[in-house]
């Protein structure tokens, strides 16, 4: 079929026009998609995790150890009879304060005075014999061996008298220390044998406040540290750490600690419940809320902070004390920005957008 040249030319021009229009639309679509992808990429690149931070600076804090304990007498002594006999007097009543040397119990001397008189007579007789023999030996009328024998008899008589003197002294049971007569176990008319308990004296000055502390606490406390003691009666006392055991209790694995407290009037007795507060050396530390604590996989306790490059980092901490406003910790830099909102969402080394907050929220 023969096609007119003019018609063929028209068809070619129409095809060219359509192809040009289509190629332009495809270019525009590709350009639009490219620009859209670039915007998405830029938007993703510029989006950072926003976290709330709080600036904190280190300040002096005096940590303390609070433990429970009880009071004890410095000494508890049980007096026992050292000679046999019947009780004839108890001059001091139970519960009274006593001075060292005070007579607690008087035992009947029985025939001890008569034995003392006999011993004195024997000594006088032996002394005369010794003096006469000594003169004779000096003049050569007696051998020296005779004088030695008489001297031995004289010494034996004196030893016997001393034994009787000691026995007489033991008929008066006396307080070996100053304290309180806490218990009197005998009365007038009771017969005592050697070793029978007769009284108990307690020394309440100084008063001991004792407690059991853990191994970690024992490493922090030193002899000579001051301590505040709050008794169950409401009384508040001060004292000094005087003793820390070097051997742990086999059952509890704790260490005994003793605090000396002045108690001159013996006002406070043995067995009162006590709360003990021991101040440790001052430390530079930070006071933060425990709600922002974070624990790593290995169990280390710490917080997340933001450095000068806005990178998040986990910093291990150690709790050293608490008060009514928060928890005091060590381990943080002197001045730091702590993450208080979003700390559980960020990773180590992640760049974040820090927003300072004081009320626990970020906008």
Question: What can you see in these coordinates?
Answer:
The structure is a single chain. With 363 residues, the chain is of the alpha+beta class. It folds into 3 domains: 84 residues, conserved putative lor/sdh protein from methanococcus maripaludis s2 fold (Beta Barrel); 87 residues, Efflux pump adaptor protein, beta barrel domain (Elongation Factor Tu (Ef-tu), domain 3, Beta Barrel); 112 residues, no CATH class. It contains 4 helices and 22 strands. α2 packs antiparallel against α3. The two termini are 79 Å apart. About 5% of the residues have low confidence.
Shape: rod-shaped
Count of spatially separate domains: 3
Please give the radius of gyration in angstroms.
48 Å
Structural class: alpha+beta
Low-confidence stretches: 29-45
Q: On the 0-100 scale, what is the average pLDDT?
A: 88
Number of helices: 4
User: Strand-and-helix sequence, N→C?
Assistant: HEEEEEEHHEEEEHEEEEEEEEEEEE
Q: Which percent bin holds the helix content?
A: 25-40%
β-strand percent reads 35-45%
Q: Distance N terminus to C terminus?
A: 79 Å
Largest sheet: 6 strands, mixed
Please tally the β strands and state the result. 22
